[in-house]
Amino acid sequence: MRKSLGWNYRVMRRWYEMPGADPISELGIYEVYYDENDNPDGWTEDPRPITVTVDSNEDDAMFDLEDIHKKIGEALLKPILDYNKEEDI
Q1: Which helix (H) or strand (E) holds 61?
Q2: Residue 21 CB burial class (10 angstroms; 0-12, 13-18, ≥19)
Q3: Are 58 and 66 spatial neighbours (Cβ–Cβ below 8 Å)?
Q4: pTM for this structure?
């Protein structure tokens, strides 16, 4: 894999095959990494949890949580990526 030049949160649709049933899908927030042409080049295996670690400063943790929510809000405005097909849908 090439060196990623950046990342952001993106909404991804992941399809699941169920024996004897129609395929189902779910949407989740994933970290997506980009190549030098700004194309998705990889992503986290599972959706990201919306949690932060609180060390000694709860205010810093709240700032981090607010920042994550802002970035997720930006992800909701972008096209959904297909987890299984590695492309926009």
Answers
A1: helix 58-75
A2: exposed
A3: no
A4: 0.80
pLDDT tens digit sequence for 43-62: 999 999 888 888 878 888 89
Q: Residue 73: CA atoms inside 13 Å, Cβ hemisphere, count?
A: 6
Which residues are within 8 A (CB) of 39 and not within 5 positions of it... i.e. 6 or more apart? none
Question: Hey, what amino acid is at 12?
Answer: M
The DSSP output letter for 18 is -
Contact call for residues 81 and 73 (beta carbons, < 8 A): no
Domain layout of the chain by residue ranges = 6-88
Angstrom CA distances, 29 to 1, 32, 60, stand at 22, 9, 23
DSSP structure string for 30-57: EEEEE-TTS-EEEE-SSPPP------S-
